[in-house]
Design brief:
Serine Threonine Protein Phosphatase 5, Tetratricopeptide repeat, coiled coil, two-stranded antiparallel sheet, single chain, mainly alpha, TPR-like_helical_dom_sf, Gliding motility protein, TPR repeat, 37 helices, extended, 4-stranded antiparallel sheet
Length: 844
């Protein structure tokens, strides 16, 4: 009897209250849980976004449940003869484990579940305990162990239906973590069939729909979403509404019934039960109209979605992004940039989407800059080209427009000013209407009070009765008119009043004349309302007009390249480049524009591409572009562009410049349109500089800067041209004393035996008689010659002595003439490839 009383007390008192606390805590988790419906939902509706803590409670409800479970174990456990006699203790341990699990203290929870399996193997709740233990293992990242243990449990015996549902749902969750989606789908289907809980059924079906949608099996996905919708009020409404959204995402805009779609989703929007979901429904309607090109309707629904969005930051970001895309398509780049800025604020900076939009946003700065130049200069050149009468008519129309705008603004300001005055007047009247009695209570104002009395002064709004307004008026008067005497007409200063000044027509400036003059001033015409104000600002000289046209042409070229390379907006890019060619620009941008049009039309219009190719080859046969397009026997390199570039760059590092130049044109043609292209072009320019010298290097850099102005390589080329090339061009030989010298032995690059012999003799000399720390190296000079170099010499005299020894000493006898040169001059001959000029200058 005593033993049974312990069990009853445990069950109906301690564990009952503990279970109530646990249920309350679980409801709190469900209420606070925010599912991210943009991603595949987790099978269990409990997100873990905090660090796992071993023994610290965070939720008072779960703490109470744990306390009750501990109390039941400590006070009512009856371990007699190695056997537990209280049948409720296993329930207490299960409650203990659950409370710790929901409190996200998984290691202590695992201890509780393991104790049940160890101590109570015959418990009626043993299968449930096993599932909870594996749930905890999964939270600790042991997914493979979960699959193994639960699969073993299901093989050994068949639990009741709900336990089977929980076991299969747990397996599905583990398989999803292991990226085994097919296995997860099989287990989720079983969980749906066995579960008795409608909310779980709806969640599992929705996840199945998501998985099939992600795998591209839209028919199966639709079936599961429809199944969720048919459940209607049996489950949480969020699953039903998100299923409607998912169905909308899969709508076939080519063959689908748009009228039925429109009607269906308008009904959903009008349903009062769907008010919490107006954000996603309006967003989907915005996409529906956006896809059909109905921008005004789309914008209306996107804004409605933003108005209703509260906590879903990705939804807010998606609305901003889509609106930004709409403005971008309409070439309203400043507005697009603003919406992209708002998008980036709401996106996670670690996501690929953030990086992509951030890149677009940065590129938009360039688009906005060049578009503004193009629009402004087009407008100026258009007006300049008009006949004089049409120019005047153009500006007259513009003046009428700004007059209306100014008048509307003036009326608005007057209304605002009048409104503000009314507010102030009412405020003063309200303040004056209330008097305060001695006891602090409001008292009515006396009905009749002489003007001199304080009560009336506080109430009266007459200007001169208010000392504050009088003081303000004095300051304003002095500010406008200065100090004036009381004599004569106040609008004319005392000096003028006493001594009238004679005008050029001998008319005295009297008070009456002063009034007339002020009236005339009031009627003076604002310059911006005169056509001459604008006509006088138009450029007239040919130099100025040509400069504006050149700036406009450069902007069109830059825009064409940006649209092509950075936005892949080929139609926009082609339009800008075609317009540019129509303006007959400078010769240096014609050929790059034609080549870029050829590359664009290779993607969008093969026939037009062929015509541009023929035009380049026939009209510019000697150009680099013609050589690339006409070379049909280019050897194609295997591998992705980055790998190929690294191999070629290694040849450059090894000074195998002939190899680089023999391959690079073919690679430029092979990878045309790829992101690697500017790198290849810059590498080619650097190689040309190494082989052919400064003049050809400068020309190659100019080509990189013009062809790829928006790439890092193009900007680097521009920087080198602006900062380094002028300095290099101004470098001259200096035959003054230097602290660093070299001895050069010029050789043909293919004279391998001569090179080897000279290097062996120099090495022998350095080992036998090296008074200084000398070193030996070899540098290429151009495509045919190179230098065997002795370096590390500090004086010219010592260099001369070493060269003499190597020439005359019988042990060495190097016949090749040596060139003694300072490090500074050596840099110049390598940059400018002018060794002969150095030798001539040295003789002089």
């Amino acid at each position: 009897m005593a033993r049974n009383s312990h069990a009853l007390s445990t069950k109906y008192n301690i564990l009952y209250n503990g279970q109530i606390a646990l249920d309350k805590g679980i409801k709190g988790i469900e209420a606070g849980n925010q599912d991210d419906f943009w991603e595949i939902l987790p099978v269990e509706a409990m997100n873990i976004d905090e660090d796992i803590v071993a023994d610290t409670t965070k939720n008072s409800d779960f703490a109470l449940a744990e306390t009750k479970a501990t109390k039941a174990i400590q006070k009512h456990s009856m371990n007699i003869g190695g056997r537990e006699r209280n049948s409720q203790i296993d329930e207490a341990y299960l409650l203990l484990g659950k409370s710790r699990y929901y409190d996200k203290r998984f290691i202590p929870a695992l201890d509780a579940f393991n104790y049940i399996l160890y101590k109570y193997p015959n418990s009626s709740r043993i299968d449930e305990a096993k599932i909870w233990r594996e749930k905890t293992n999964m939270r600790l990242g042991n997914d493979a162990l979960v699959v193994k243990n639960i699969s073993q449990m299901l093989k050994e015996h068949k639990p009741e239906k709900q336990v089977l549902a929980d076991a299969n749902a747990l397996l599905a969750s583990a398989f999803l973590n292991l990226e085994e989606k097919d296995s997860a789908i099989v287990r989720l289907k079983k969980a749906v069939n066995f579960s008795k809980r409608n909310n779980e059924k709806a969640r599992y079906r929705f996840i199945l729909g998501q998985l099939y949608q992600e795998m591209g099996q839209n028919d199966q996905a639709r079936d599961y979403y429809e199944a969720v919708i048919k459940m209607n009020r049996k489950a949480d409404r969020k699953y039903m509404m998100q299923s409607q959204v998912r169905l909308a995402q899969m709508f076939d805009y080519q063959n689908g019934d748009k009228f039925a779609f429109d009607e269906k989703y308008h009904k959903l929007l009008e349903n009062r039960e769907n008010r919490p979901f107006l954000d996603v429904l309006n967003h989907q309607m915005g996409i529906f109209y956006d896809q059909q090109g109905k921008d005004e309707k789309a914008l209306e629904y996107y804004n409605a979605s933003l108005d209703n969005a509260k906590t879903d930051t990705y939804l807010i970001a998606s609305n901003y992004r889509n609106i930004g895309n709409m403005y971008f398509k309409k070439a309203s780049y400043p507005m697009a940039a603003k919406y992209y800025d708002s998008t980036l604020v709401k996106l996670d900076p670690k996501t690929r989407e953030f990086i992509r939009i951030d890149k677009i946003r940065k590129n938009l700065d360039e688009v906005i800059f060049y578009e503004s130049i193009a629009v402004r200069n087009d407008s100026i050149l258009n007006v300049v080209s008009l006949p004089e009468s049409e120019k005047v008519a153009y500006f007259d129309a513009y003046i009428e427009k700004i007059k209306k705008e100014d008048e509307a603004q003036r009326v608005l300001e007057e209304k605002e000013a009048e409104k503000q005055k009314n507010i102030e007047r009412n405020s003063q009247a309200t303040t004056a209407d209330v008097a305060v009695s001695a006891n602090g209570n409001s008292a009515p104002k006396p009905a009749f009070t002489p003007p001199s009395m304080t009560a009336l002064q506080a109430d009266n709004t007459f200007y001169f009765y208010n000392p504050t307004t009088v003081s303000f008026g004095k300051v304003a008067f002095k500010k406008n008119w200065g100090k004036r005497t009381a004599g004569g007409y106040w609008r004319v200063s005392s000096v003028t009043a006493a001594n009238p000044v004679m005008a050029s027509d001998s008319t005295a400036i009297t008070p009456e004349n002063a009034v007339a003059e002020d009236i005339l001033k009031d009627k003076e015409v604002n310059p911006k309302y005169e056509a001459d104000f604008y006509l006088n600002q138009l450029p007239t000289s040919k130099t100025a007009i040509d400069s504006i046209a050149k700036e406009r042409n450069d902007s069109y070229y830059q825009l064409g390249i940006i649209y092509k390379e950075k936005f892949k907006e080929y139609d926009l890019a082609a339009s800008k480049l075609e317009q540019l060619l129509g303006y007959q620009p400078e010769e240096k941008v014609v050929l790059p524009a034609l080549y870029n049009l050829y590359k664009i039309y290779q993607i969008t219009d093969k026939d037009r591409a062929e015509s541009f190719k023929n035009k380049i080859i026939t009209q510019y046969p000697g150009s680099r572009y013609a050589q690339i397009l006409g070379n049909e026997n280019v050897i194609v390199e295997e591998g992705n562009p980055d790998v190929v570039y690294k191999k070629l760059y290694q040849h450059y590092i090894n000074e195998e410049f002939d190899v680089v130049l023999s391959k690079i044109d073919g690679l430029i043609n092979q990878f045309s349109g790829e992101e690697i292209l500017p790198k290849l072009e810059l590498l080619k320019a650097n190689t040309i500089g190494k082989v052919h010298g400064l003049k050809d290097y400068k020309a190659a850099l100019e080509n990189v800067a013009a062809s790829y102005p928006n790439s890092e390589e193009g900007k680097k080329a521009t920087s080198i041209l602006a900062e380094q090339i002028p300095l290099l061009e101004n470098m001259n030989f200096d035959f003054k004393t230097s602290g660093h010298w070299k001895i050069l032995y010029p050789l043909a690059l293919n004279a391998v035996d001569d090179k080897k012999a000279i290097e062996e003799k120099i090495t022998k000399f350095m080992n036998a008689d090296n008074a200084q720390k000398l070193s030996l190296t070899f540098n290429s000079y151009d495509s045919k010659e190179g230098f065997v170099i002795i370096q590390g010499i500090t004086t010219k005299e010592y260099a001369t002595s070493v060269a003499q020894v190597l020439k005359e000493n019988p042990s060495y006898k190097i016949a090749t003439p040596a060139v003694i040169i300072s490090n500074e001059n050596y840099k110049i001959i390598q940059i400018r490839k002018n060794l002969n000029s150095y030798l001539e200058a040295k003789k002089e």
